[in-house]
Design goal:
Keywords: Disulfide bond, Signal. Helices cover 8% and strands 26% of the residues. The strands form two sheets. Strands 1, 9, 10, 11, 12, 13 and 14 form a seven-stranded antiparallel β-sheet that branches. The chain has a seven-stranded antiparallel β-sheet with strand order 6-5-2-3-4-8-7, covered by helices on one side. The longest helix is centred in the C-terminal third of the chain and has 10 residues. The protein starts with 22 loop residues before the first helix and ends in a 7-residue tail after the last helix. It binds 2-acetamido-2-deoxy-beta-D-glucopyranose.
Length: 309
């Protein structure tokens, strides 16, 4: 049998059945913004250093993240033409006006960033619950999206985008920037990294809260074997070969977080594609951020908000 012909094709965002928001979320949005706990903003905070430490005890299949332990993770919510809210995925704060995510939220086969009414999209900062208002939550909006010039909607090559936010992001204990790896930074097969996201335990856990799944870095050959268009130069392979846990649609763009020997958390990957989180028979494909940190930093300078770390 010719194995190649039975290789799975990566499934992209537009092929997923996106979960629409529950009605009560819409009702909550209509309520006036009550800030229960106003913290004094800090002007400079270090990157990759949460005040609440992430849980690093390994739980196969994922678990609820400690609230506030991934303070750079932003929930990206789209408004559809028929006025429904959809969780598009996650982004990561890189600067006071900059959020990193995947390009596929904004451009895919049949739609481009020009078709979307981004004024109605929302960025939830300091957020833990999907539907419930969190005391430290802030809502921000999109001013502009910069898609990597090499992005290919078919192969998902260069699936990277920067969101320039409308309002400045204020740092506090619940909202902080992430660290980027520099271009010389290398990960190792077997490193255990973590994927926080609002979809990552859709089948096993509580999908109302921010969850995290530990994802071991796998050898490129595992993904090259599973996916006919795995791009080993710029993508990395992580997760499980044998069906424990994969990421779900609402995790797209979520950061794959790895801890450096100095205790600082940095984003090594961006969740870009997989097959089916309910089957979870396959590893996930991530953009390898070491390969993109130069482009990200350069683009941040051009946009007027240079990376500060
Ligand atoms: C995009 O990727 C597809 C699939 O790999 C390829 O056939 C196509 O030539 C690529 N397009 C560009 C503009 O590189």
């Amino acid at each position: 049998m010719h194995r190649n012909s039975s290789k799975e094709q990566k499934i992209y965002r537009h092929k997923f059945n996106r979960t629409s928001f529950k009605m009560r979320f819409i009702l909550l949005l209509a309520l006036p913004a009550v800030v229960l706990c106003q913290l004094s903003p800090q002007t400079t905070v270090p990157c990759g250093t949460p005040v609440v430490q992430p849980i690093t005890k390994r739980i196969v299949g994922g678990r609820e993240a400690a609230q506030g332990s991934w303070p750079w993770v932003v929930m990206i919510v789209a408004t559809t033409n028929d006025h429904r809210f959809l969780i598009e995925g996650s982004g990561s704060i890189l600067g006071t006006h900059v959020i990193l995510t995947t390009a596929q939220h904004f451009e895919g086969s049949g739609f481009s960033v020009f078709d979307l009414d981004l004024r109605n999209w929302m960025l939830y900062l300091g957020n833990h619950h999907r539907n419930m208002r969190d005391p430290n939550q802030k809502v921000n909006h999109i001013k502009k999206v910069i898609i990597h010039p090499g992005y290919n909607v078919t192969s998902l090559k260069d699936d990277i985008a920067l969101i320039i936010t409308q309002e400045p992001i204020e740092y506090n204990d619940h909202t902080r920037p992430a660290c980027l790896p520099d271009s010389s930074h290398h990960y190792h097969v077997g490193d255990i990294c973590y994927l926080p996201g609002w979809g990552s335990t859709l089948t096993t856990g509580d999908d109302e809260v921010l969850n995290q799944v530990d994802m071991p870095i796998l050898d490129d050959s595992v993904c090259a074997h599973q996916f006919r268009d795995f791009l080993s130069d710029t993508e990395l392979c992580a997760g499980y070969e044998t069906g424990i846990k994969e990421f779900c649609p609402s995790d797209l763009g979520s950061p794959l977080m790895c801890k450096d020997s100095n205790g600082i958390w940095y984003i090594q990957g961006l969740a870009s594609s997989g097959v089916n989180c309910h089957i979870a028979k396959y590893p996930g494909v991530y953009e390898d951020l070491s390969m993109y940190s130069d482009w990200i930093k350069q683009t941040m300078i051009v946009s007027g908000y240079p990376y500060e770390y």
